């Protein structure tokens, strides 16, 4: 079985102590003040072990977020490019994220809300396999993790 690999000789950029558990399957990033759903969309429960990770086109991801109600809140949204990239843990890969706070994260692309200015048919995404940030075609099927606060 393959799993996340992390280098202990590199300091964590998203260490456990940067987040606090809100007791409702959300975590607040103490560095940014943002509150994140701990599970990618389609997953739920303890360890995000229930369900299957959902994928969306970029437009469908925006619409899904607009309709989302979770933990008694209806102000969820897709993160912008920089917010989403702030979750990348560069000392780890497959996935490049803190799995204590974001368990069962697929090692693949997640949409941001940020359009890719140079290519009107694209939007910014973050690849949580290796932590890459790049533009993806808006018709691609990528994952979504919702956030609230900020902006």
> What fraction of the residues are assigned to beta strands by DSSP?
25-35%
> What's the helix count?
2
Global outline: globular
Distance between the termini: 40 Å
**Structural class, from helix and strand content?**
mainly beta
Largest sheet: 4 strands, antiparallel
Q: If you had to describe this structure to a student in words, what would you say it looks like?
A:
The chain has 151 residues and is mainly beta. It has 2 helices and 11 strands; from the N terminus they run E-E-E-E-E-E-H-H-E-E-E-E-E. A hairpin with a 4-residue loop joins strand 9 and strand 10. The model has no long low-confidence stretch (mean pLDDT 95).
Helices, strands, pairings?
Blueprint: E1 5-6, E2 19-21, E3 26-29, E4 35-37, E5 43-44, E6 50-51, H1 58-67, H2 81-85, E7 92-93, E8 109-115, E9 122-127, E10 132-137, E11 147-148
Antiparallel strand pairs: 1-7, 2-3, 3-4, 4-11, 5-6, 8-9, 9-10
